[in-house]
Amino acid sequence: MKMYQVDAFTQQLFKGNPAAVLVVEAWPDQALMQSIAFENNLSETAFVKKLDDENYAIRWFSPMDEVAFCGHATLASAFVLFRNYTQATTLQFHVKDLGIFIVTQAEGGKILMNFPIRRAEKLSEYPAILDEALSKPFKAVYANPQAYIVQYESVQDVLDEQPDLVKLKKLGKMRTAITSSTLDVAITASDSIEYDCVSRYFAPAIGIDEDPVTGSIHTAIVPLWADQLNKTELIAYQASKRGGVLYSRLLENDRIEIAGYAVLYMQSEIEVHAL
């Protein structure tokens, strides 16, 4: 079974967010897919099943569990398909519960991804452990079905934050009225000269202390800042140690375009016949 490892949301190797991608003819056993993701120990491993040259089903696994949506592994998967598997320049990813993701290969290697917006609602109340887990002052707390989004006073506070991951893990295991699933935590601010917004993302409850670059949560972060900044096109930066840039544009019909680059790090062969 061939596997690719791709650095997403970057044009430079060893930056962005690494994801593993496997293109399969049929879904492997669920336990095998989870074991592969656990062995890879990347924030996500994507499995892509071909329907035809322009249509593919996609699933994503963290080291701990299958996840509902992953932006950077979608970008990595599109990069692999455009490079190795299809002559098409536009693909449709079929996603359980979220419908169709349209992905286009643009000039210069940029990949454009058309996602549904997953807006975050401002919360008047939130778990007290969130205050305990974060050390910097913040202005507001929002939430969508994926994460709490905490608006900080300054980008410097976002950069300097050293959250209590034990408490964030405990928070991540608490179910909420917003969603039947658990919630991760994103922190964000917008006083950067170079970028419209800067964020970081923590998901220790699913085995990811800090995610390098999180495309999926920007379907909520970008609309939030678009409203506050009165803009429809934003450049976002995720300020992990690896870092990554997301080029975003609000579209009609409650959709958002999130675009970025990717580079291939490795391709390998998994010896699944030995299992």
TrEMBL record:
GO molecular function, one term: isomerase activity
Classification via Pfam families: PhzC-PhzF
Entry's Gene Ontology cellular component terms: cytoplasm
Highest taxon, organism lineage: Bacteria
Keyword Isomerase: yes
Keyword annotations: Isomerase
InterPro entries to which the protein is assigned, alphabetical: Phenazine_PhzF-like (IPR003719)
Active site, renumbered: E44
Family statement: Belongs to the PhzF family.
The protein, known as: PhzF family phenazine biosynthesis protein
Source species: Acinetobacter ursingii
Taxonomic path: Bacteria, Pseudomonadati, Pseudomonadota, Gammaproteobacteria, Moraxellales
